[in-house]
Amino acid sequence: MRQRCYNDFKLVKETETDGFIYGEITNHFYFENGDACISGDGFVQAPDGSRAGIIWGLAKEPSISVCIEPEVDRWGVYEIVFIKPIKTMDDLILNFRTVLPLLKEAYKNAYSK
């Protein structure tokens, strides 16, 4: 297992899906622009405990792009698109599960290099 980063931030256990868990950097329930969170920072922990950074915003379709290639302490930093503003835990879970196939592919690609 690679060294872990983001140790000062909490995992959101409710998001756990297929062994992947979303970690919160930005407080997703602090609504600076109205009644929902529309962008932020987080991370994802893979089943083996390794982690990657996430920078997220909103659009109609989920997407992912590489911001920082895999490094010793993380399997990259990715800009992802959530499909729904976050008002509740259910919104966060839905968004995470919607982008999870893209994150799984990024994880697999990081370890195949």
TrEMBL record:
Top-level taxon: Bacteria
Record's protein name: 3-deoxy-8-phosphooctulonate synthase
